[in-house]
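Our consortium's second objective concerns turning raw sequence data into structural hypotheses that experimental partners can test. To show how far this objective has progressed, the report includes one record in full. It was chosen at random from the queue rather than selected for favorable results. The single chain below, 400 residues long, was entered without modification.
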Amino acid sequence: MSDQDSSSSQMTPEMLLPMENADEMENLLTSLDHLDLDKYDGRHGKPLGSVFQMDGVGGERLDLIMERDLLQMEQNQRLMTESRSYSMLVSQLESQLTRVQTKCDEQSREMSSQAREISALQQKCALQTVQGEQKFNQFLVCANQYEQSKVKEIEALKLKLSQQEHMLNSMRSELDHRHQNQNRAQHCGHQQNHVNNFNYQQRFRVNGQQQHQQHQQQHSPTSSSSSESSCSNGNGNGAQNGNNAQYFEHMSVSQLEQLRVRQKNIVYIIGLPVSLCNAKLLKSNKWFGKFGVISRICFNTSPKCVKANSIPTFVTFTEERDALQAIRRMNLYCLADGTRLKTNFGRTKYCPLFCRKEACLNEKCKFLHAWAEHDDIITEQEITDFNAIRAGPPSRYNRK
């Protein structure tokens, strides 16, 4: 609402009456111009600290005009105060809006940068995935090629090994044939020498008694046969020992120390549970005692074997055939709880001092001090095949 509307609304009918005199009106306006409004009391229509009296209608009109002006001034001041407060509030709101917009812009920039980073990471991840798949495919190809090459190498090595074994067997047979021919030649030589000596004695014997000649003729064949048999036995044992020595001559000391020799009277058992580790029980007819006489039983009770419930055991028989029968009957034998046993011949090795051709002074040495037959040497393939067989509790040989 404007000031004119407010002033017109506040004017009373008395104020709208025409003034009686123009001079009075001018005097009134002049007095209003010189009036100090700060000292005017609008409630009583009088100046503050002074006495201003007007009689009649003019005094009443002046009071109404003064009161109107004061009301207008109060409204103007109130409006100015409200406008200032409103302007301050608007400025605060504008500053807050500016801050919010700035913050929103920063967040939008951050989100856009994060979106770019995410897209870059996604592209990088996709590239790495493709590269990883390519590398994995290359690895599979290389692995297949390596496996094929190793299979070919293994087949070539097996073929070479079979050829070498065939050559070795042929050399052994040829060597045995030569030794047999040599023994036969020596045997024939001894017989020829004996016959020549006998003929020489008969040719130059002078006037011998006939009984003595008959007695000599009767005992000479037996003596010759006994001498021939003793010579043949001695030559056979010497030839056998010579063959065994010749078989190991080309080996070095380290190779001899690594050799393992088969003990045909000892049974090596793997997978025996702790509950059966009783020598008296194993010697009974229920177990290994039914195959023959047992002279000794030895258990390997290391903490690792006890924890695995699989005790390696060595059973020594007095006869080799009993050990062989026990191995054939008890190999891959399953107990009631599913425990599997595997058996094989026991094995030993050559004494290190014997390999270096030195004298062993240990009377209780358990290693070999004489050359064994080359057929009793255990190959690495036999050891590998035996170790590949799983034995013991079902949890050990059932796992993949």
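The partners drew two points from this record. Residues 57-203 form the longest helix (147 residues). The first strand starts at residue 40 and ends at 41. Both points have been shared with the crystallography group to help prioritize constructs.
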